[in-house]
Amino acid sequence: MVMVLSGKKIVLGLTGGIACYKSAEFLRAMVRDGAQINVVMTDSATHFITPLTLQTLSENPVMVSQWESHAGSPLSHIDVTRTADAIIIAPCTANFAAKLAHGIADDLLSSLCLARPSHVPLLIAPAMNVEMWMNQATRRNIAQLKADGVGVMGPAAGFQACGEVGMGRMLEPQELLAETIAAFQPAVLKNKRVLITAGPTFEPIDPIRGITNRSSGKMGYAVARAAWEAGGEVSLVSGPVALPAPHGVARHDVTTAWEMREKVMSLIADQDVFIAVAAVADWRVANTSTQKIKKTGSAPQLQFEENPDILAEVASLKKPPFCVGFAAESEKLIEHAQEKRSRKNIPLLVGNIGEEAFGKDENELILFDAKGHTVLPRADKLVLARSLVRHIAGYL
Ligand code: PMT
């Protein structure tokens, strides 16, 4: 398992909202990922969840009052931010966001935030009623916080505890974890638009049967997640796979190679990078049957026609994005990969060994460009994807 938060010291601040119940699970998720958590609560937050719960989960004392001495010194509570790698306020109420935006320090948590060293990132997970979120004052405060460099995670839209529906729900614990991990990745694709294909395609023979391949989507989804973590605005065109969409990524589901081509071409304008990880069927059945093919004693005669080559088509656009292809080979990887790179006219091609890549959690990649090749040794696909994204950013 890849533990990005391993050894990271995080101050988790809770303010008074019903979403406090999700913070306990968020805390556990960060601890499982290796983080050390110090919890600081406002007095209001203690009405929604007890300090004891968070103390038990974090295995650290929970701080609430600025008038209590911590570790024998009345000021030692600010020490916790001196050694912190990040401060995360989850949930962050409209009131607390207003305090942060205006530099008000009237309790322990707001004082800690104001006194935090400038190199310690501050992230907030807003949680409030939809009308509070839409209120002009909150809009101004959130805009100010963003301008001040505060990371704003969410909120999401949906049913709210008050019975109303709309924006203002705190993100779910796993989404908060993904956002926290992303905050520790270099933002090498900030303001870049990235389009990725992933998974297999499925070419029908009849309404029941079809031709597909063993691609699980794991590699492409890892690349999409890594590109989002690096600050990219990511769209993922995915063939049929059993994976959830990575947080923050706009996923478009398709089935056939032709549908994948149509979706890619509809999204390609203004993309900065196109990464074709999908294992696209080169051929489709020309004589598909509209009814299930019955056994007749002789084998059905399938005829094939060639599918469009999506990557080659994108690479031949007048103003193509930076194009990255993948190639899974069963032999002569270097020879075949270099040949594919030149034939499709793309600057970067990622080679891997088919049997070791399809469906597996780990992979080994060889990156081919005009100058030669670079090996990314065997590792978890997400680790490789993060390296690949940094490599790609180097060309932009
Ligand atoms: O999904 P996983 O189980 O994690 O497996 C990952 C993977 C093995 C599928 C992935 O790492 C990989 O290698 N994908 C490319 C598979 C392949 O061999 O593709 P290809 O040689 O058929 O095509 C070369 C390139 O052209 C690829 O970038 C492909 O997306 C693209 N292509 C191919 C055919 C086509 N009609 N249109 C395309 O865009």
Describe this structure in words.
By secondary structure, this protein is an alpha/beta fold. Helices cover 32% and strands 24% of the residues. The protein has 2 domains: 9-183, Flavin prenyltransferase-like (Rossmann fold, 3-Layer(aba) Sandwich), CATH 3.40.50.1950; 193-290 and 299-395, Rossmann fold (3-Layer(aba) Sandwich). It has helices at 20-32, 51-58, 79-82, 94-102, 108-114, 130-134, 136-147, 173-183, 218-229, 257-267, 310-315, 333-343, 354-357, 381-393; strands at 9-14, 36-41, 86-92, 122-126, 151-152, 156-159, 165-169, 193-198, 203-204, 210-211, 233-238, 250-253, 273-276, 283-285, 304-306, 322-329, 348-353, 362-369, 372-380. The chain is elongated, with a radius of gyration of 25 Å. The mean pLDDT is 95. The protein binds ligand PMT.
β content, as a range?
15-25%
Biggest sheet, open or closed, and with what strands and sense?
8 strands, mixed
Report the uncertain regions. none
Termini separation comes to 30 Å
Ions, cofactors and other ligands present here are: ligand PMT
User: In the CATH hierarchy, what is the superfamily of the largest domain?
Assistant: CoaB-like
Question: According to CATH, what is the topology of the largest domain?
Answer: Rossmann fold
Total DSSP helices? 14
C-alpha-based Rg, rounded: 25 Å
The assigned structural class equals alpha/beta
CATH class of the largest domain: Alpha Beta
| Share of helix, binned | 25-40%
